[in-house]
Amino acid sequence: MQTNNEHKSLKVVHLISGLGHGGAESVLFRLAANAKKDHHIVLSMQDGGVFTEKFATAGVELHCLNMPAGKMGLRDFWRLRNKLKQLAPDVVQCWMYHADIIGGLAARLAGIKAVLWGVRNSGDNLARSSRSSYYLARYFGWTSRLIPKLIVVCAELAAQRHQAWGYKASKIRVIPNGYDLSRWQLVDAATKQQTRETLGLAVDGPVIGLVARWNPLKDHANLIQAFAAVIKERSSATLVLIGEGLSKDNAELMALLQQTGLVVGEQVVLLGRRDDVPELMPALDLHVLSSLAEGFPNVVAESMACEVPNVVTDVGDAAFIVGSYGWVVPRQNAQALGQAMNEALAFLETPAAADFKQACRQRVVDNFSLEKMIERYEETWREALRK
After folding, report:
1. Which of 89, 166, 191, 380 has the CB geometry, 3.0–4.6 Å to 141, for a possible disulfide?
2. Rounded CA gap, 34 and 20, in Å?
3. Residue 227 is assigned to a structural domain of this protein
4. pTM
5. Domain that holds residue 66
6. Element (H, E) at 312
7. If DSSP codes are grouped into helix, strand and coil, which group holds residue 212?
8. What are 38-66's pLDDT values in tens digits?
9. Would you give the DSSP letter of residue 4?
C-alpha cells in the first residue's frame, strides 16, 4: 500500500561524525548533491573539512557542530539531539559507526522515527584501522534492533560480517556505491599521451597505478613487493602511487622502496593527494588494489569506468565489482599479485584487450551508476517511513 510519502519531497538529514578525505564522504557528497527528489541537509558532528566548499558550491545545506574528535561529552550529545530536533527531518540517514550508534540514539531521542544506519566498512581488520569503530560495531550491534528502522550497507560481504556481529538481518539493505560516469571515462590516445608526459611518465611502457591513501589496510607494501617482481620481466613498466601520504616525505614508504631496489623518479612515481584523479586515471594501463580489507572499493569501479582493467585482492566486494573483467588474487600474497599483474599486462597487449576494456566500463554502467544508487536510497528512505 502506497502512502503520501511515496511521492512527496522528504527532508533528509545526513548525519556523519566528520568530513575528511574518505570514500564514505565522497559517496555522501555525490548522493546529496545529485538526488533532487528530496531536500538534503548534511550535519557533521565535527567540522566540514574539505567538503565545506564543495557542499556550498553544490547548493547543499551543511551544518557543523565542531565537536572535538573522540571526546564527545554528555553536553555535546544533548546539543546534537537538540540540533536534530530543530532541523525536524522526515528521515535521518547516518553514515558510519559513530554516527550510527551515537547519532542514531540522539535522533530517536529527538523524536525522529525514520532513522537509518549506514555501514561503510566490511568489518575485516577493523580493529587495526580504528579501535573505537571496532568496539562500536562489534559490541553495540545489538542496538540495531532498537535504534534504526533500516540499515544501509554498501557491500554484500559487509552485510554478512555485520549480521554475524548481531546486526538485525531483516533490517539490512545492500546499496552498492554509484558513480557519475560523465566524470569517469576513457580519453583519446592523444590526451592519454599528454597526461603521461605532464606527469613525467614513459609514453611507451606499461603504467600501473594505485589510488589509495597511505594506510596499513591498503597494504602498499604488498603492491611494492609485487611490482619489484614485475619490473624484472618488464623493465619499461612504471608504478604510479596516488593518495594522501604517498610522497618522499613518507619515511616508511621510502624505506620500502629502497628495500626492493625501486627508485622514485625512475620505476616509481609518487603523486600524493590529487584532486584531478578523474583526469589522471585514464593514463593508466592497469589499476591494482592491494588491500588487506575493503568494503566497496570506489577506486575499482572508477578505474573500470575509465576502461582501465584491475587486478584486485579478494577483499570486500572487490571481486564482485570486477566480475569476469579483472584478476582476483588472495590478499597479502605478493607473489600471486605479481603473477596476476604480469598476466594482465600480457593480455592487454592482445587484440582481445579492446573489447575487454569496453566491457569493464559497461559493467559499471549496468550495475553501479549514480542514478541507480540514488533510486535505491530514495526507495529505502520511503520504506523506512512505512515501518
Report:
1. 166
2. 20
3. yes
4. 0.83
5. 4-178+369-386
6. strand 310-313
7. coil
8. 999 999 999 888 899 999 999 999 999 99
9. G
